Amino acid sequence: MRKTDWWKDAVIYQIYPKSFCDSDGDGIGDIKGIISKLDYLEKLGIDAIWLCPIFKSPQADNGYDISDYTDIDPMFGDMADMEKLIKEAKERNIGIILDMVLNHSSDEHPWFKEAKKSRDNKFHDYYVWRDNKDGQLPNDMRATFGGPAWTYVPEVDRFYFHQFAIAQPDLNWDNPELREELYRIMNFWIEKGVCGFRFDVIDQVAKEPDNKVTANGANLHDYLREMNLKTFHGKNLVTVGETWSATTDTAKLFSNPDGSEFSMVFQFEHILLDQIPGKEKWDLAPLKLTELKKVMNKWQTELYGKGWNSLFWNNHDLPRIVSRWGNDSDEFREVSAKMLATILYGMQGTPYIYQGEELGMTNADLDIKDCKDIETLNMYAERLEKGYDVEDVMTSIHARGRDNARTPMQWNDTENSGFTTGEPWLKVNDNYKHINALDEDVDQNSVLNYYRALIKLRKKYDVFKDGRYVDLLPTDERVYAYERKGEKYTLTVVCNFTKENDVPVNISIPDKDKLIISNYCDAGDDKLLRPFESRMYMSIM
Ligand code: GLC
Is the same domain home to 193 and 320? Predict the structure, then answer.
């Protein structure tokens, strides 16, 4: 039995099943493949796996379009495999967190197939419809993956609402029967022994299309509290809400310590910092370190005692952090990947590792013909049609495309990186020959071994969980330095975010403080940092 709030000390590892490990040579990762890598994950020291959707799905959006919430997609295996995964992971003290995509289903879900048949069908109201008035779209709302957010169905002479792809009709949470169905699904999985849920775009479920509201609809928190009570309440599970819209105020509701909603929020304010404000994610702006600090400082201090953060740089929707805010050249890749881990792992919250991040995997620079992601492909077509320059579009895709994170896991230096014996569904990144788990396992200075060490440290000192955060250099554009003050210990983290050498650290580290981890092999200097150098000190008060 795990202790209450166990997730505050936990490290969560995210698996994108399609790209993790293929056991049967069809080029697609599967559940048996994941089982075969549990020892690797145990050795890394993680406590839970967030498993991206493995449910039955036509895969229009790689599983985020579910056609049966209580069955496994045959390409990943079957229910027996899933039960075995839950059991074998548990034997290693690793829990399985399922990805619940409850804002929308697939258009091939039996509910939607029924819903389309007639307005009187019981399932019609499981979705969000508006009447056809003279062939006009109900309004001008756009879908995240391009085009209008409304699609016409002649059989019922109505439009249905979809915030994402046409194949992802939005579910109507205003219908209590629909909500009950969703709770039944969650309870089905709780009984199977999962340790928690990640809720996909959960802040968007209480949409109000007539008011052009997607996130934070008026009924949102009522629905979430109801879901909590009817499913996981009091069961000591970990729950995390993906909330692009969260502010520190709404996050205090989403992750209220009274346990009425979720354990924690997964919010993106820091991730949006290198995008031109008000524009799309494809419109790039450089990152300013002081802006990053401002955002981090706000979340670290305002949620203290009032909520709980997720700590992450990466997931399956985001480019690789080492290629983004680190430096993926041969010279600086390892050191900058370790620096980025250090800055995050000293903070308060629950860290997430996205598969391959622990190896310092990089963006992939795929040709457009190798890209598979619906978002990227739709954007490419749309922007070319609008007359954008193809090179600019490819620059955006290389910087931001979701396929960057989805290239297969790099296990070793054999063909296709040991991911599959077949033809991989998405091209393996060419750099697998020198970036792979097998080599990093035995290299004491690898990114992988650095992650293992950081995870051990987090488990050793309570200050990681409880310490009060103070930014020590809020106006410095090169060095990020902060402190966490705990009852017994003070942790100080100092990181050089640049590739410059001899960068001065304008704080003094007391002599009695012990350097507990650093990303350079030799001790170095407290006062002058080398490129991307990061140092963590611990003091006893
Ligand atoms: C979330 C998922 C993303 C998916 C979208 C629609 O943002 O992380 O992969 O495409 O929701 O379900």
Answer: yes
Alpha helices, H only, 45-150:
79-91, 110-115
Number of Cβ within a 10 Å radius of residue 38 = 16
Left, alpha or beta for 212 (phi > 0: left; psi -120 to 50: alpha)?
left
Spatial CA neighbour of 411 closest among 429, 427, 435: 435
What CATH number did the domain enclosing 146 receive? 3.90.400.10
Residue closest via CA to ligand 1's atom 5 equals: 64
| pTM summary value | 0.98
The answer on 287 and 149 residing in a single domain is no
Q: Say which CATH number the domain at 375 has.
A: 3.20.20.80
Residue 541 confidence (pLDDT): 63
Q: Does the CB atom of residue 47 touch ligand 1 within 6 A?
A: no
Pocket lining: 101 vs ligand 1, CB cutoff 6 Å: yes
**Do residues 247 and 306 lie in contact, with contact meaning Cβ atoms separated by under 8 Å?**
no
Check pocket membership of 164 for ligand 1, CB cut-off 6 A.
Answer: yes
- What pLDDT digit, counting tens, does each position of 241-273 carry? 999 999 999 999 999 999 999 999 999 999 999
Q: Is 177 a catalytic residue?
A: no
Report the separation in Å between the CA atom of 478 and the middle of ligand 1, taken as the mean of its atom positions.
33
Could you tell me if residue 458 is inside a domain? no
Residue 203 sits in the same domain as residue 256: yes
Residue ranges for the chain with pLDDT beneath 70: 541
Greatest CA separation for the chain: 77
Among 99, 107, 200, 513, the active-site one is 200
Domain range for residue 395? 6-103+173-452
> What atom in ligand 1 is closest to the CA of residue 101?
12
Domain count, the chain: 3
Residues 208 and 59 in one domain: yes
Query: Are 436 and 310 members of one domain?
Result: yes
β-pair partners for 354: 14
Domain assignment present for 506: yes
**52-76: pLDDT as tens digits:** 999 999 999 999 999 999 999 999 9
CA of 61 to the centre of ligand 1 (A): 8
**Tens digits of residue pLDDT in 98-124:** 999 999 999 999 999 999 999 999 999
> How many angstroms separate the CA atoms of 502 and 318, rounded?
32
Residue of 16, 19, 64 to test ligand 1 pocket, by largest number of atoms within 8 Å of CB: 64
- The residue nearest atom 7 of ligand 1, judged by CA position, is 201
Question: Which stretches of 176-280 are DSSP H helices?
Answer: 176-192, 220-230, 248-254
Number of H helices, E strands in the chain: 16, 20
- Cα(502) to centroid of ligand 1, in Å? 42
| Confidence at residue 523, expressed as pLDDT on a 0 to 100 scale | 86
In a domain, 216, yes or no: yes
Give me the pLDDT at residue 75, please.
98
The answer to whether residue 167 sits within a structural domain is no
Q: Are 207 and 170 in contact (CB under 8 A)?
A: yes
Does residue 477 have an active-site annotation? no
User: Could you tell me if the CB of 200 is within 6 A of ligand 1?
Assistant: yes
3 state SS of 250: helix
